Amino acid sequence: MANAVRAGSLYRFLPHKRKVLSLYKKALRHLEAYCFEHGRHVYAYERTMLRARFDKHKDEKDFKRATQLLRLGEEEFWLNQHPMPIIFPDEYGGVAWDRHEKNRVDESAFDTWGPELKASFPDYFAKREKWYKIRQDTWEEEMKWLQEWDKNNIENGVPMTDALPAARHKDGYPPFWWRRVTRPLEQVKLMEWFPNKADHWW
């Protein structure tokens, strides 16, 4: 974790171009919220004027002046931001942001299922038994390869990260492969059928 950056300090390490593009996108979204009740033609005009303000300084060569312009633009955005901006469900702050992680249940919860529920999904639980058998057989090899990977990175001066190595052999198993196999769907869909569904009023 030596190369980890604190969440509150991450913005300082972003490149200037990324900051400008982020400001432009936020300004467009808040401008759209202001023009929502006035029609699309008003929004089309206002966003053209906003783009012209950004294009006016896009070829600025003096980095100090460009940084100052960015700071002034961020201050102007902060003072004029919409109190209730348009936020897409899957964006940060939206109703569905990171929903698949917040509502995620550990895969081991299936161990508490009874035979009747497991019988409703025979294909999945047949694969699950194979995954557990493969996981048990490949565990020592995965850990050995992970230790060698870390050792090689330390000897070669490669910065430590959370990235895991690929499989050592072709068609092999990378470390912690079952985390990907058992990962839940990010866009969860309601099932069309479930046991005893006919017994409920919905």
General description of the model:
This protein has 202 residues and is mainly alpha-helical. The chain folds into 2 domains: 10-86, no CATH class; 107-196, no CATH class. The protein is 50% helix and 0% strand. The chain contains 7 helices and no strands. It has helices at residues 16-34, 40-56, 63-80, 99-102, 115-119, 122-155, 178-181. It is flat. The two termini are 49 Å apart.
Topology:
Layout lengths: L15 H19 L5 H17 L6 H18 L18 H4 L12 H5 L2 H34 L22 H4 L21
Helix pairs in contact: 1-2, 1-3
Order of helices and strands, N to C? HHHHHHH
Number of strands: 0
Q: How would a crystallographer describe the biggest sheet?
A: none
The pLDDT mean sits at 84
What are its keywords?
2 domains; 7 helices; mainly alpha; flat; 202 residues
Brief characterization of the structure:
The protein has 202 residues and is an all-alpha fold.
